TrEMBL record:
PANTHER family: NADH DEHYDROGENASE. This is NADH-quinone oxidoreductase subunit N. GO terms for molecular function: NADH dehydrogenase (quinone) (non-electrogenic) activity; NADH dehydrogenase (ubiquinone) activity; quinone binding. It catalyses: a quinone + NADH + 5 H(+)(in) = a quinol + NAD(+) + 4 H(+)(out). Its EC number is 7.1.1.-. The keyword Oxidoreductase applies. It comes from Allosphingosinicella flava. The gene is nuoN. Residues 121-416 form the NADH:quinone oxidoreductase/Mrp antiporter transmembrane domain. Belongs to the complex I subunit 2 family. One of its GO terms (biological process) is ATP synthesis coupled electron transport. It is an enzyme of class 7 (translocase).
């Protein structure tokens, strides 16, 4: 038991921190909201430092329910850093409207406990518990601005569709258990390996993958994403677009490789369909968008499609490319959303239209330069860092004899480049719109600067260590 508890130390630390901060909220009220946020950031840093599997081989806890390996370690460190940075964006945003509450960092912490369990799940039960813990906190976060009808609507939509996805997932879990006789990933894989994939196991696999696909916003389970991203408060949207995406992609990868390994031929067809549909729809549907948050929602769907191309390879290099893709994607996405957080008119009211970015290069040149850097990078234009994740997933697909899939992915990336370049055109060539509010915010300025430096050619210094770390993490699944 002591060994198992040691392997779950990050989750225990985050859970204890959440309970302590709830007590702080009960006794100190919202006056302690900023202090609670910084304490939560410290909790994330401490948890990242004690993640098992970074400097050792990790282990298996609670008789296979929980796996602490280098794959989980890579995902968790990325999740904790993304959650901490996204949480910092909320302080100044909510404080202006007087609605920043001490419960906010508590919800982020609890959601991150669920995300950690998703990355370390070794059993269908752990998978479901982690997914639900992450989701329940996310439903509240989406509707955090209670007096804003859009936020309330976003929370309700997310809750209803999330409940539907949970039902689909549970049905798949019950089918897999019924036909394989086990809920552990190893047991399911052994059952499929011994007697081949039965019809019941095939149906169970489809339902489980559909339930997880909802969490990664893969087409055709993407319906909630644009509405929730637009309606939720912008700091919450920044969180949704980063940490939970990493957790869900890590979970999908582990389930596909470890639990459904003997059925690679079957699940590969599902993943290829989701990858193609996501890259095409994410690219085409974003073209007509006028709201920057809706556009970024379709952009996230588009990027998930590219990451799934790496997973479709089903090889160690393919899994490594998925991890590498998510690491770069998180930096680009958080940088972009921190720029969006700066989009406020002279009265301090948030503006979200793409038209409001017109002429930004003349009114706020530094902000425009950072946004242009992020847009070029997400479009995958060299020599920026955003080029390398796409290169690695396409390389993994070609090595797995899926050259045609890589070719389609390259073609659809051209579609996506159109709307990223459109934003740059609006900022640099259109007549200036009313200038954004000039307000100093050291935290967001620091995040934007660091993210811009990372996606610039200076980020190449991180290429080799990040590539080696992702390859080492992927090796844990094979």
């Amino acid at each position: 038991m002591g060994y198992s508890l040691a392997l779950t130390l990050p989750e225990i630390l985050l859970s204890a921190s959440a309970i302590i901060l709830m007590m702080v909220a009960a006794f100190a009220g919202d006056k302690a909201a900023r202090l609670s946020t910084w304490l939560a950031v410290l909790a994330f840093i401490a948890s990242a430092l004690v993640v098992p599997g970074v400097f050792d081989i990790g282990g298996i806890a609670f008789d296979g329910l929980f796996i602490a390996d280098s794959f989980a370690a890579f995902a968790k460190i990325l999740i904790y850093l993304a959650a901490a940075i996204a949480m910092l964006s909320a302080m100044s945003w909510f404080a202006r409207d007087g609605v920043y509450r001490t419960e906010y960092p508590v919800l982020i912490l609890l959601s991150s406990v669920g995300m950690g369990m998703m990355a370390s799940a070794g059993d269908l039960i752990t998978l479901y518990v982690g997914l639900e813990l992450q989701s329940l906190a996310a439903y509240v976060l989406a509707s955090f601005q209670r007096k804003d009808s859009r936020s309330a609507e976003a929370g309700l939509k997310y809750f209803v569709l999330g409940a539907l996805a949970s039902g689909i997932l549970l049905y798949g879990v019950s089918l897999l258990y019924g036909f394989s006789g086990s809920t552990s990933f190893a047991g399911v894989a052994a059952a499929m390996g011994d007697g081949g994939v039965s019809t019941g196991e095939l149906f169970g696999m489809v339902f489980v993958l559909a339930g997880i696909a909802f969490k990664v916003s893969a087409v055709p389970f993407h319906m909630w994403t644009p509405d929730v991203y637009e309606g939720a408060p912008t700091p919450v949207t920044a969180f949704f677009a980063s940490a939970p995406k990493v957790a869900a992609m890590a979970l999908l990868t582990r389930v596909a490789i470890e639990a459904l390994g003997p059925a690679t031929f079957e699940w590969r067809q599902i993943v290829i369909f989701m990858a193609l549909a996501s890259t095409i729809l994410g690219g085409v549907a974003a073209i007509g968008q006028q709201n920057i948050k809706r556009l970024l929602a379709y952009s996230s769907i588009n990027n998930v499609g590219f990451a799934l191309i790496g997973l479709a390879a089903g090889t160690r290099e393919g899994v490594a490319s998925v991890l590498f893709y998510m690491a770069i994607y998180v930096v680009m996405t958080l940088g972009t959303f921190f720029v969006v957080l700066r989009m406020r008119d002279e009265k301090g009211e948030p503006v979200e239209t793409i038209a409001s970015l017109s002429g930004l290069s003349r009114t706020r040149p530094a902000l425009a330069a950072a946004m242009a850097m992020f847009m070029f990078s997400i479009a995958g234009i060299p020599p920026l860092m955003g080029f390398w994740p796409k290169f690695y997933v396409f390389e993994a697909a070609v090595a797995a004899d899926l050259t045609w899939l890589a070719a389609v992915g390259i073609a659809t990336s051209v579609i996506g480049a159109f709307y990223y370049l459109r934003i740059i055109k609006v900022m640099y060539f259109d007549d200036p719109a009313p200038a954004f509010e000039a307000r100093r915010d050291l935290v967001s300025s620091a995040v934007i600067l660091l993210a811009a430096l990372f996606v610039s050619p200076l980020g190449w210094f991180a290429l080799e260590p990040l590539s080696n770390a992702s390859l080492n993490a992927a090796g844990a699944l094979f």
